[in-house]
Design brief:
It is a single chain. By secondary structure, this protein is an all-alpha fold. The chain has one domain. It has five helices and no strands. The longest helix has 22 residues.
Length: 131
């Protein structure tokens, strides 16, 4: 996916997250799970492409972060990889529960948002530009 397409998809997810928080996250846990995961994945792919760490045609998918071992094997080395992967794995695990599981507590849903924003801050420090 081209950088502009990533930026557009990321912007869409960010707007949906803002709208969802305003409407009440308990009523939209699946939306939170999906868009936090999708946005984080777009950020990671944008970083890896901009740093020339993966080929231009390479696509990163959210399920790559089902386990830290799987993600570590499939992603190249980069600064803060050891800090980023546990966050992505935690978000992916939460995503599946939010998207496919029973209703969760507000605190549980908020943790997905916290993980996403922590991932975003880390990738911001690595130089990801998406605006």
């Amino acid at each position: 996916m081209h950088t502009d397409a990533h930026k557009a998809a990321l912007q869409e997810s960010m707007e949906v997250l803002v709208d969802t928080v305003q409407k009440g996250i308990e009523r939209r846990q699946r939306t939170i799970g999906f868009h936090c995961s999708a946005a984080a994945t777009h950020l990671v792919e944008m970083y890896l492409h901009s740093a020339h760490l993966i080929d231009p045609g390479t696509t990163i998918k959210h399920n790559m972060f089902a386990s830290e071992k799987k993600a570590r094997e499939r992603l190249p080395d980069f600064p803060s990889k050891d800090e980023l992967l546990p966050l992505l794995v935690a978000l992916e695990n939460r995503r599946n529960i939010l998207c496919y599981g029973k209703p969760q507590t507000k605190k549980y849903i908020e943790k997905a948002l916290d993980l996403f924003y922590e991932i975003r801050r880390l990738l911001d420090r690595l130089g990801v530009r998406y605006e």
